[in-house]
Amino acid sequence: MSAGTTGNDDVYSTSDATWTVDADDDGTTAAQGTGSDDHDDTGDTGAHDAAAGDDMTDDRTGSATTAAADSPPAGSPSGATNQARSGKKRDKRAGRATRPQGAAANPGEPDGQEARSGSGTSAPAGETGTKRPTGRPAVTQQPVVLRAHGLVKRYGQTLAVDDVDLEIRKGSIFGVVGPNGAGKTTTLSVLTGLLRPDAGTVTVLDHDVWSDPTAAKRAMGVLPDRLRLFDRLTGAQMLFYSATLHGLDGKTARSRSADLAEAFGLGDALGRPVADYSMGMSKKIALAATLIHSPRVLVLDEPFESVDPVSATTITDILRRYTAGGGTVVLSSHSMELVQRTCDSVAIIVGGKVLAAGTMAQVRGRRSLEDKFVELAGGRPVAESMEWLHSFSG
Ligand SMILES: Nc1ncnc2c1ncn2[C@@H]1O[C@H](COP(=O)(O)OP(=O)(O)OP(=O)(O)O)[C@@H](O)[C@H]1O
Fold first, then answer.
1. Residue 316: which CATH number?
2. Using CA of residue 233, residue 235, residue 237, residue 240, what is the dihedral sign?
3. 3-state secondary structure of 147
4. Which of 141, 275, 295, 325 would staple 221 via disulfide (CB 3.0–4.6 Å)?
């Protein structure tokens, strides 16, 4: 990404003085740009299968938990957002996109990438070989930066998250997949402190999301499932706003905005109101706003949804550069192919339970991730009673 500007600084200007306030950089080391060129780029094109030393869970027979629903999680959520806590679906989504999460942080030093799994979990024959840059330890040897233990979340009678444990390591791109209604969004909302669990704990870089919410959220960048953007702002204003919210000074905000706009192919759109953006463009500007403060951990709910294939590849490249620099990504997606290609680790959630989790190689074995997913999700439904579909009216 270029450190230069688009030559279009006017796009940041507004009659509202709010947008022109230069916040102090506050000593945040976030000045290290996302995906800066001094980070090694792995150049990987295949799946990032991690080392076999990592444990995989395959808990298809795990019984539904009943104990935790009435128990409050450890620690008080008093300091956390109460947005999205209501039992209404629309309330669950509400507000998450209107407030960028986290604060400036330095992703850290270049480090871990994938490792090929060993016996019993080797990658399918013919798969593109993956390369681990020399000197970098495998992801499985990296410290856990995001840990969930015993998460339970109910909406009335619906058990949306059922005793979920997750461990996500530094430098990992961790995919969360599952059928519609499996509990992915609810799980990610709990991980990021947007939803209070009925039981369980979440720590981000050893900060408890509920007892130490500010520190935990400072370390995170969150792309929520349903985008609710300040869409009367231009793209440039939105990025600037997001940057200054996280304590970046105006110069850094503009410079990073230009970098991100170029990287996401939004340079020409920066001066237009976000309300006029297509779905894919909105997704990309929201993702850019999530990245601008260089958080240590990114939690992205369906970042590839509505995004064209070229842009999806761009996003993948950006995420790889980010993790090569020590950042960590958790993302959900319905695209098994994209997840298999992009993620080094994965969890398959069905009915609120984690049925399989581990490195990509461990979870899918010699099959594709999609085949494994279909098997765990109960197979493809057969529409046998739909003969009327061939009756063709008119
Ligand atoms: N606010 C809510 N109120 C009531 N039920 C909810 C609410 N949010 C989610 N649910 C229910 O919780 C379960 C999990 O929903 P969730 O949105 O987490 O699934 P998902 O895996 O993200 O689904 P999708 O892939 O379709 O986005 C579903 O049964 C859903 O109907």
1. 3.40.50.300
2. positive
3. strand
4. 295
Task: State which amino acid sits at residue 383.
Answer: A
Q: Are 52 and 117 in contact (CB under 8 A)?
A: yes
Residue nearest to atom 2 of ligand 1 (CA): 89
Q: Which atom of ligand 1 is nearest to the CA of 92?
A: 1
- Considering only CA atoms, which of 300, 263, 258, 259 is closest in space to residue 283? 300
Q: Which of 134, 3, 127, 151 is nearest to 73 (CA)?
A: 151
- Cα four-point dihedral sign 214, 219, 225, 230: positive
Is the model's pTM score more than 0.90? Answer: no
Residue at 350 is within a domain:
yes
183 Cβ inside 6 Å of ligand 1: yes
Structure tokens at 145: 């930066």
Give the helix ranges, DSSP H, for the chain: 89-93, 184-191, 213-218, 235-245, 250-264, 279-291, 309-324, 336-342, 360-364, 369-376
pLDDT digits (tens, 9 = 90+) for 127-152: 333 445 555 667 778 899 999 999 99
Residue 276's CB is within 10 A of a number of other CB atoms, namely: 12
238 inside domain: no
Residue 243 lies in a domain: no
Number of domains in the chain: 1
d(CA 159, CA 143): 31
pLDDT in tens, 45-77: 344 444 334 444 444 433 333 333 333 333 333
The per-residue pLDDT for range 286-342, each reduced to its tens digit, is 999 999 999 999 999 999 988 899 889 999 999 999 999 999 999 999 999 999 999
Which pLDDT belongs to residue 352?
96
Distances (CA, A) of 19 to 14, 239, 240, 286: 7, 10, 7, 17
C-alpha distances out from residue 271 to 127, 239, 256, 318, 383, Å: 43, 11, 16, 23, 48
Domain limits for position 328: 48-231+296-373
